[in-house]
Every structure is written in structure tokens, then in C-alpha cells.
Amino acid sequence: MADTLEFNEIYQEVKGSMNDGRLRLSRQGVIFKNSKTGKVDNIQASELAEGVWRRVALGHGLKLLTKNGHVYKYDGFRESEFDKLSDFFKAHYRLELAEKDLCVKGWNWGTVRFGGQLLSFDIGEQPVFEIPLSNVSQCTTGKNEVTLEFHQNDDAEVSLMEVRFYVPPTQEDGVDPVEAFAQNVLSKADVIQATGDAICIFRELQCLTPRGRYDIRIYPTFLHLHGKTFDYKIPYTTVLRLFLLPHKDQRQMFFVISLDPPIKQGQTRYHFLILLFSKDEDISLTLNMNEEEVEKRFEGRLTKNMSGSLYEMVSRVMKALVNRKITVPGNFQGHSGAQCITCSYKASSGLLYPLERGFIYVHKPPVHIRFDEISFVNFARGTTTTRSFDFEIETKQGTQYTFSSIEREEYGKLFDFVNAKKLNIKNRGLKEGMKQSYDEYADSDEDQHDAYLERMKEEGKIREENANDSSDGSGEETDESFNPGEEDDDVAEEFDSNASASSSSGDGDSDRDEKKPAKKAKILKDRKPRKKQLESKKGKDPNAPKRPMSAYMLWLNASRERIKSDHPGISITDLSKKAGELWKAMSKEKKEEWDRKAEDARKDYEKAMKEYSVGSKSESSRAEKSKKKKKKQEKQMKVKAEKKGASSKSSSSTKSPAKSASESFKSKEFVSSDESSSAESKKEDSEDEGAASPPPSSEDSASGSD
Predict the structure, then answer these.
(1) Where are the alpha helices (DSSP H) in 212-308?
(2) What integer pLDDT is reported at residue 242 of this predicted model?
(3) Where does this one sit in the cell (predicted)?
(4) What is the pTM of this model?
(5) Can you list the domains of the chain with their CATH numbers?
(6) Cα–chain-centroid distance for residue 265?
């Protein structure tokens, strides 16, 4: 028999809400990890007292009772998994997994039994319903009546808020059944009552969310925030995590308390309590307990008298009472040396802290993202200026967070951090070696098929192939790659040459005039490659071979009609989901068959591409030869035309002096200097233009000698 059993998509019932997650049963005990909050429930095998299997709304459920009275409910099992679970419980926990069905008679009278933190309403031996007493917020009594009020469930559209029980009077003297019922409920209910004195009080602390100044009173089981307008009581059981984060100015500290369920004020929910401290503030603290009680309760973590920085005292007390570790920034250091990055989220500016196991943004609104729930991250170009960039995070649930206006100098540090944590980076496609190495039981989608993820992988491979082809084909650099850390050397040289030219041309030029040409040159340089890129995209060859499809897409094309016939009227999105489920459930042997087909298609594509590239090169060389030949012919025609024009011009110029001499004769004294100069220029032109012009006649030579 296997030492462990794992179940996905299991739902845990907590405070009336169903939280999905993953369940693992091992020899050591039972572990459930909540997908939403990342909280882990660990039940040791030695603590298990009883296991019950029953039919519930979400299939079948498992109810576990511990020796200290706690009850854990897990729903979402299939009926066929009962035998496997029953054998596992017998072999490793030495428990019989009992089958108990709920009573569905519809009767409204029966017997109430209190077992641990559970109120069970039974008819005979069968339970009708069960109420976890931790869900009860208030219990009031009347004549023969007990009223239970419940905490509001924010995740559900409709919540059960009140149940009333009629308690018939009994003949026993001295025992009031109504009061006895109410005391049993109140002993286990989640009713916060400020009984006794506070352990310590911190006065007038600055709180960012909820905003204001509050007195914080520390009680043994809860935290009381007392402000001028509002009061909040926070049980320590609702605290998920504690964070201590240094501000970028190195003079202040954030203390962040993560809450689930959140505190409420009207329709507003506060999932984080954020306190802001100055590092210079000191305090001397005395606990309202004697030294023996302090030693017994806190085991050396706290002492009766303490002194130090205010933020240290608050964090130390909270750590001891909540019994959780405080998360601080890891080894990340930004460009300025700080452990955070200045950025904007939504409409407000704040600080993003890269932690060892996630990211946290403070403060408005606060966001905490764990690495194990991140699908991929993306580095995007800033929308308003090239001096900044955006950092995008998309979770496995499809939620997207965009942190904008990050300084360009932070790019290298943040990229190295993301790379070291082995997060998938969308810009360069999903790499095979970038598997996340977290806790072995952290949430991951490695075993779940996602059609969109397959398409993203395929597109990433194609982008890389295109990038390699373009780099081999041409040496020109396009504007596609985004490397904010690299400086533009060409622009700097243009700026220097413009500055020297402007200074040498005139002394009156100012520095402002010198900088303008450099800016224009940079804009032009950025724009030109984009135009070339757009032209190359528009001029795509329709005769080029089509890229091959992946194994999944080949299978989907072959199976699409069959899925449609099996599920008539199915929409496109539902069809893709159904196809993903079928592909996930397909055996390895069948998948290998489609993998072979995809490999054959890829080889055919590569062969066709080689033939196409050779053909395109020969065609281009032939086109270039024909162009050169055409240019040569045009040049020869032009030379012939020039020679013909020159000969006709020279013949006309030799005839005109003879004609003028026969018509009228002028002596040398009457020839003006202008006419002589023009005649000389004409003569020079005629001598330059044609060596083939006929020699002058005897009449012309005689007139010239005269």
C-alpha cells in the first residue's frame, strides 16, 4: 500500500464557507493546504480520534474528529474512493472509517448533542444537521427558547444569520435547561468578550488601514483597536501572517498584519492591518501579569518589563501571542540600496517588497502575492515614458496585478531576483527548466492541462524562432527588445556632435538650443525601425510554409466534431475546457502517438522551410541581376542620347558665325567686350561638348583672321 494519498479540488468547510485546496494523507498525519490563502492545516496521526464518511452536497465528505475536540470537514470525494481511504485509515491510523448517512425525514424535533466544538441535531441515531460553534457570534435566551446568531459569510450570496431552538421545560429542580443549553454554546462559541484587564496597551499608534490613530489593547485571545470613531476586535485565530518592512527612507517601519476573515466596516473589508512606526520612537513596557504567569505562558519569549523601539515591542508581543513567524525582506536590494521598489498600483503610489516566498505591496490597497500562486510575470514598456517600465503578475486563478512607473535602473535587480526564484517570465516564453522549486506540497498546475497555456508555449517557441531568423537575416536592430539597462550610445554621439557644431557656429547659442537637435535625432531613430518592422509584417509571403501544430492542437482538430456530437449545443469556451479535461485524462501511450505526429509535422515544416529559403534566395539573386542589367541598359541609353544631343548642338554653333559674317561685317574696334566674352564662352562650350564637330570652313578662318 502507498504511504501517501493525495486529492486535488477538495473543499474544507471553515466558518460556513467552502475553501478549495489540496489534501494529503501520510503516515504522519493529514495536511490540507488552502489554495486561496496558502494556510496549511496539519493534523498529527496521534491526535485523530474518529473518522466519518458520509454523503454531502459536493459528492462525499470526510469528517475528522481529534482528541482535543476539534472537527475538520473535507468535501469533494468520489464514492469510489471510500475503499482506498478506509484501508489507509486501518493500516496507518488504526481507525475504522465509519459510514453515517444524514437523516432526510424533514422532522423539526429531535435531540441536541454537544461534542467538542460541534452542535449536532439528531433524530434517533442519525444527524440532521451540525453547527460548528465557532460560527456563532451571539447567543441569547428567552422563555423556553435559545437564539443563535452567526458570523456573516462574505463569500456566499446568501448567509444563514439566525437559528432558534425551542427547549421544552423539564421537571428537574435546580437546573434550567435553557440556561444549560446557552452555557454549552457560549463555552465554545466565537463570542469576543473583553473580560479582565488587558495584558498591555499601546497608545495613539498611527494606522494606515484602517486610517486613523488607535489605542491597541492586547488581550489573551484577541486584539482590540479602539479609535475615536470605530472599534475593532480581532481574534488571534484570524491572523494569517505578520510582516515587518523597512520604509525606503530608512527612518520608518511598516508592521503589517494579514487577516482572514477580514475586519469589516460597513461594506468595506480590511484584509490587512498596517501600522506605521518611526524608528526613533522608544517605549518602556510593563505587562499586566506577574513574572511567574509571564514565564509559564510565553516561555521566555516575553518578560514582565521590556524596553526598546516601539515597533520592536509591538512586533515582539504580537509574535508571542499569535505564535506566528514575522516575515521580513530577504536578500533583495534595489538600485538605491533599499529592500523595496517605488511603483504605482492602480491610482496610488507605494512600495513593492520582493520577499523570499512572495511579493507584498503597501499600502493602498495592500496586496500580498505568494510565489506558488503565480502563473507568470511580465516586464512591459512604460505607457507614458521610456524612463520607466511596468511589472505585471498573473496568478493561476487569472487575476492580474500591474505595478507601473518603476524606474528603469531597477530592471536589472528585479529581473535577476525573478530569475533566481525560477518564476516564469512571459517576455521570453515559458522555459523547460523554469520549474518552481517550492515546498513539495505547494500548489502547482504541472499536472493539469491548460489549453491557453499550451498556446502560450507554442507562441513563445515561434517568437524565439522568428527572432533567430531575423538576427541571421539582417544586422539591423529593431525596437522590439526591451532592455532599459542599456544606454543608447549613438544618440549620445549625435548629441556631442550637435553641441560642438552649435558652439562653433555662434557664441550666442544657449545650452537649451544645443539639446534640441539631439532629442529630435533620438525620436527619429526610435521610429524608423518600427516602420520597417510594420512593412515587413505587412509584406508577409503567402507562399511560405505554415507552422506546425502541437500534439494537443492536432488531437483537438481530429476530436472536435466528436466532442460536439457528444455534447450538442456546447459553446466554444466550454468545448476547449472539455477538451482540456479529456486530454488530461488521456493515457501516456495515446499522447505519445500524437507527439509522434507533431514531431513528423515539425520535421516536414523544417524541410519545407529550407526549400523555401533556398528558392527565395535564388529568386532574390535573379531579381537583383535583372535589376543591375536594366540599370546598365538605361545608363548606356542615356550616354548615347547625351552624345547625339552634343553633336547636333556643335553643328548648329559652327554654322551661325558664317551666316552672321555674310550678312553684316563689323571691324574689330566695334566689337564690345561682352560680345567677345560670350563668343569665347560659346567657343569653349562647343569645344568641350563634341570632339566630333566638323572643322571650320575657309570662309570662317578668313573672317577670323580679319
Answers:
(1) 291-298
(2) 92
(3) Nucleus, Nucleolus; Nucleus; Chromosome
(4) 0.51
(5) 4-99 (2.30.29.30), 111-187 (2.30.29.220), 200-327 (2.30.29.150), 341-421 (2.30.29.30)
(6) 30
